[in-house]
């Protein structure tokens, strides 16, 4: 049975699209047939990060409106077998995401996919609501700062009260915390909240901590999900996250600053 | 009126909550009150214009005669206020107020004064036991929320108590006609006794609230206050909102 997973946050710019791309790629690398859908109608940047922007012919809204068949709009990834992207429309507005249309497309995807990853836009308006509504599980993406955590708390409230599972009184949406852009030295200086602070406020299980990393910007500029850059810190943090999602035990890494050696401490870098 | 409205009742009666300005009299001498009103209105002209005002007699010395309500009402109107009623009057004062066309408002005093609430063995005598002003409802509609109340959510327990097993996040709001119990930390707003039940209380395990209120009397709390992050109960003693730690006593009983 296919699982629908929303990557959501409330706040913009926290790393939802980065996480969606690497999470979907990671699941596909493990052999699961996975599709990642861009719900950010009008902005459309998942296809850039996935490196398939030049292959977009039809999009999610075309499929909802019946202007294209699903398999015409799905873009097959060139690097990872079993990975597909359903891009957003750049020209329509968010009202094009009409609930029964979204449901019809998701139902069709459920027939042949193991995982359906929904990359949510920021905010709590239509696009975000539609990305969340049908979810079975949620990756709540948060940066270690007060406003981001507050928005994530808000999103958790909406998941618990307005999602399809909540409305139909089914088992609640399974929630996972993904803490991104984590910078241990800024936490130690007290400029950022710590993992413990964030967990204390949100009180949901921690799936992964992704460090603030220059590798993210570099890989997204070249259209490669950072998880494919296996040797980078952010890439291996996403690989750990996927492993934990699939039930493997992996210790959390990148939570503390690297211990500097005696000479480095003495003379600086 | 168009014909299709003739079948409808000409009006509808509904209960509603309002914030009224309370004028607490310290004496009943109209000349003194008039002079003080002149001074207040001169300070802030226009401030009281069309404001509904309740005359509270609670602070009047027991021996003092009630004011002449008709004259007092006229004086308030001259200053732009709209007198609507009287509360905390003796029987005689209340009937004089009614005769002057004023309404009688329910008392705001809690059913028990703080001294009644203290440990009986401490020897503090019960000062005064007032009749309960809030009719106990036949069925208490208590609500239990088994999860955390998240930012942006508002939970209201009408006609009863509210119990929250998780935390109340910053930006969340919990309200009850009765008392509120929070087993996690209380970081949002908590308003107990929202329909005026002055005996309602708030209990929580870690007080970090943005605002707490009982029967309309509210307080904000800040990091650094002595109650911060403490397990406390919050209740009204007269007009004062008391925040008191839930202390484990030597007998092993929590103080209530
Ligand atoms: N772990 C990270 N380290 C450094 N930069 C990051 C990280 N995650 C995301 N970013 C950057 O933050 C910006 C916003 O990321 P994005 O995934 O588009 O967020 P969202 O989809 O939530 O708006 C991008 O410029 C991205 O490169
Ligand atoms: Mg995005």
UniProtKB/TrEMBL annotation, chain A:
* Official protein name in the record: Septum site-determining protein MinD
UniProt keyword list: ATP-binding, Cell cycle, Cell division, Nucleotide-binding, Septation
Question: What Gene3D superfamilies does the record tag this protein with?
Answer: P-loop containing nucleotide triphosphate hydrolases
Q: How does it assemble?
A: Interacts with MinC and FtsZ.
Q: What does this protein do?
A: ATPase required for the correct placement of the division site. Cell division inhibitors MinC and MinD act in concert to form an inhibitor capable of blocking formation of the polar Z ring septums. Rapidly oscillates between the poles of the cell to destabilize FtsZ filaments that have formed before they mature into polar Z rings.
* Keyword Cell cycle listed: yes
Q: Which NCBIfam families match?
A: minD_bact
Q: Where would one find the signal peptide in this protein?
A: none
InterPro entries linked: AAA_dom, MinD, MinD_FleN, P-loop_NTPase, ParA/MinD_ATPase
Q: Which residues are recorded as binding ATP?
A: 11-18
Q: Which family does it belong to?
A: Belongs to the ParA family. MinD subfamily.
Q: The organism sits in which domain of life? A: Bacteria
Q: Name one GO biological process term.
A: negative regulation of cell division
What Gene Ontology cellular-component terms does the record carry?
cytoplasmic side of plasma membrane; cytosol
Annotated source species: Plasticicumulans acidivorans
Q: Which GO terms describe its molecular function?
A: ATP binding; ATP hydrolysis activity
Q: Which Pfam families does the UniProt entry name for this protein?
A: AAA_31 (PF13614)
Q: Where's the AAA domain?
A: 2-150
Automatic annotation (TrEMBL), chain B:
| Record domain Septum formation inhibitor MinC N-terminal: where | 11-83
Keyword annotations from UniProtKB, A to Z:
Cell cycle, Cell division, Septation
Q: What superkingdom heads the lineage?
A: Bacteria
Q: Where is the Septum formation inhibitor MinC C-terminal domain?
A: 144-244
> Biological process (GO) annotations?
cell morphogenesis; division septum assembly; regulation of cell division; regulation of cell septum assembly
Q: What InterPro entries does its record include?
A: CAP/MinC_C, MinC, MinC_C_sf, MinC_N, Septum_form_inhib_MinC_C
Q: Cell division: is it a keyword of this entry?
A: yes
Q: Which Pfam families match?
A: MinC_C (PF03775), MinC_N (PF05209)
Q: Which NCBIfam families match?
A: minC (TIGR01222)
Stated family: Belongs to the MinC family.
- Summarize the subunit comment: Interacts with MinD and FtsZ.
Functionally, this protein is described as follows: Cell division inhibitor that blocks the formation of polar Z ring septums. Rapidly oscillates between the poles of the cell to destabilize FtsZ filaments that have formed before they mature into polar Z rings. Prevents FtsZ polymerization.
* UniProt-recorded name of the protein: Probable septum site-determining protein MinC
- Species assigned in the record: Plasticicumulans acidivorans
Q: What gene name is given for the protein in this entry?
A: minC
């Amino acid at each position: 049975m296919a699982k629908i997973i929303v990557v959501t946050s409330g706040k913009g710019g926290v790393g939802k699209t980065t996480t969606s791309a690497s999470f979907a790629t990671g699941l596909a690398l493990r052999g699961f047939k996975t599709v990642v859908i861009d719900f950010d109608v009008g902005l459309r940047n998942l296809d850039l990060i996935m490196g398939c922007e030049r292959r977009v012919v039809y999009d999610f809204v075309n499929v909802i409106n019946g202007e294209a068949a699903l398999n015409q709009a799905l873009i097959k990834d060139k690097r990872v077998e079993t990975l597909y992207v359903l891009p957003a429309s750049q020209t329509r507005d968010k009202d094009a995401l009409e609930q029964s249309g979204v449901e019809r497309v998701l139902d069709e995807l459920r027939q042949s996919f193991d995982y359906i990853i929904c990359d949510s836009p920021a905010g709590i308006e239509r696009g975000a609501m539609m990305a969340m509504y049908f979810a079975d599980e949620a990756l709540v993406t948060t940066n270690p700062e007060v406003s981001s955590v507050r928005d994530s708390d808000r999103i958790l409230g909406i998941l618990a009260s307005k999602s399809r599972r909540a409305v139909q009184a089914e088992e609640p949406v399974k929630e996972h915390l993904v803490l991104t852009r984590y910078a241990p030295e800024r936490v130690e200086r007290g400029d950022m909240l710590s993992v413990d602070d964030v967990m204390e406020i949100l009180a949901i299980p921690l799936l992964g901590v992704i460090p603030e990393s220059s590798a993210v910007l570099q890989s997204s500029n070249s259209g490669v999900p950072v998880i494919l850059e296996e040797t980078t810190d952010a890439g291996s943090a996403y690989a750990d996250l996927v492993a934990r999602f699939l039930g493997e035990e992996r210790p959390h890494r990148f939570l503390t600053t690297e211990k500097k050696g005696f000479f480095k401490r003495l003379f600086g870098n | 009126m168009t014909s299709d409205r003739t079948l409808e009742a000409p009006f509808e009666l509904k209960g509603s909550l309002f914030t009224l300005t309370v004028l607490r009299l310290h004496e009943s001498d109209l000349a003194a009150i008039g002079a003080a009103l002149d001074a207040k209105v001169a300070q802030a002209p226009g401030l009281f214009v069309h404001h509904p005002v309740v005359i509270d007699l609670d602070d009047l010395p027991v021996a003092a005669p009630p004011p002449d309500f008709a004259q007092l009402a006229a004086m308030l109107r001259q200053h732009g206020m709209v007198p609507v009623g009287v509360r905390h009057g003796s029987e005689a004062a209340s009937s004089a107020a009614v005769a002057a066309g004023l309404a009688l408002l329910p008392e705001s005093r809690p059913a028990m004064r703080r001294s009644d609430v203290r440990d009986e063995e401490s020897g503090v005598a019960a000062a005064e036991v007032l009749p309960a002003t809030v009719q106990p409802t036949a069925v208490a509609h208590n609500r239990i929320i088994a999860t955390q109340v998240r930012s942006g959510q508002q939970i209201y327990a009408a006609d009863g108590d509210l119990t929250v097993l998780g935390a109340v996040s910053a930006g969340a709001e919990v309200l009850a006609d009765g008392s509120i119990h929070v087993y996690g930390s209380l970081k949002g707003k908590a308003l107990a006794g929202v329909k005026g039940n002055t005996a309602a209380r708030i209990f929580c395990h870690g007080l970090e609230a943005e605002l707490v209120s009982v029967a309309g009397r509210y307080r904000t709390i800040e990091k650094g206050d002595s109650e911060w992050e403490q397990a406390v109960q919050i209740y009204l003693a007269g007009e004062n909102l008391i925040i008191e730690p839930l202390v484990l006593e030597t007998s092993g009983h929590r103080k209530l």
